[in-house]
From TrEMBL:
It is an enzyme of class 1 (oxidoreductase). This is Glycerol-3-phosphate dehydrogenase [NAD(+)]. GO terms for biological process: carbohydrate metabolic process; glycerol-3-phosphate catabolic process. The keyword rRNA-binding does not apply.
Amino acid sequence: MSYTKGKQVCIVGSGNWGSVIAKIVGCNVQKLDKFDNRVTMYVYEEMINGKKLTEIINEQHENVKYLPGHKLPANVEAIADVVEAAKDADILIFVLPHQFIKGICSTLLGKIKPTAIALSLIKGFDRLEGGGIELISHIIHRHLKIPCHVLMGANLANEVANEQFCETTIGCRDRKIGAMLRDIIQTEYFRVVVVDDADTVEICGALKNIVACGAGFVDGLGLGDNTKAAVIRLGLMEMIKFVDVFYPGGKLSTFFESCGVADLITTCFGGRNRKCSEAFVKTGKSIKQLEDELLNGQKLQGPITAEEVHFMLKSKGMEDKFPIFTTVHKICTGELKPQDFVSCIREHPEHIYIPRHIAFT
Ligand SMILES: NC(=O)C1=CN([C@@H]2O[C@H](COP(=O)(O)OP(=O)(O)OC[C@H]3O[C@@H](n4cnc5c(N)ncnc54)[C@H](O)[C@@H]3O)[C@@H](O)[C@H]2O)C=CC1
Ligand SMILES: O=C(CO)COP(=O)(O)O
């Protein structure tokens, strides 16, 4: 294999989506002179039938646990030490379940190139002391002191792995960097739109996972597509309101990109959060138990995101302004019953008040 001296890319994460992105980036860098052919991929090490997952990936070029049946390009190198994987990278693509990001950032602090840039594909938030939440891209920026852009979209990993057409959204305020990131990511079947409203892009990606839990609850209750459409619409209204209230300056048009309404729809029909939430209603098992039983090591982001959002809404006395977000959290924790979700959408403030004019453009 020939190695050039272009920019080096490291994928920080190797789950279901991380492995698909490694496949895409590994193929793209081989076609573009400005990138180094070698792509490193940080793999949280585990044993599969007595063999290290990193060894399996490097020998068979397949992540047999998180993306079975799909070959990764041979220039993607699995590395169990995140510092070793990231130390020479110019572009760090973060794609881990969001609960692990802080630990990874503290391990990487001071160990990466100061000139590196980051792209976060992570959907979720983190709690801030004092009752707020923080965006994952802001955590990466604050901890590692490098700029962090985002990519979110209607991108169920297995469909992208099968090369079924879809779109995605990159949120990046720097035009040149946005174009470079698009070059690394875009393929014939995976089309990228770059927008500058990065925070809204990221917030859409995080919040739609909460709504998808609601969609799963109504599926579990045996309600139909009309009910699910109501959950999607009311969930979208809460997402828009959330940005308007807590991140003013966001653009309404961003909700019409792939990261907004499109991701909301696909996740409410085909995602893991929907699937486990349906099973939660039908089996009465806990969310944690269902995650372990149904996802083979993959992680749910919706219930923890609901908890993070609830933590903030409660501290601000605003739980009743976002009833879907609040009720999903209370159902996941057993405080309310799944049947209560129907009252939540029936009594939703969108039905009671004339919707106010949305002030952002
Ligand atoms: N899977 C999908 O269809 C999509 C996922 N995303 C987002 O991408 C992010 C990553 O998702 P996936 O790649 O699907 O991950 P996943 O859900 O497959 O999670 C499993 C990954 O977490 C790793 N892991 C487990 N314990 C860990 C620890 N203590 N420290 C570090 N890593 C650990 C596992 O080794 C594995 O790589 C999430 O925020 C998700 O919402 C975004 C778009 C699509
Ligand atoms: O984010 C996703 C699709 O864009 C995946 O959603 P789930 O985590 O619910 O599978």
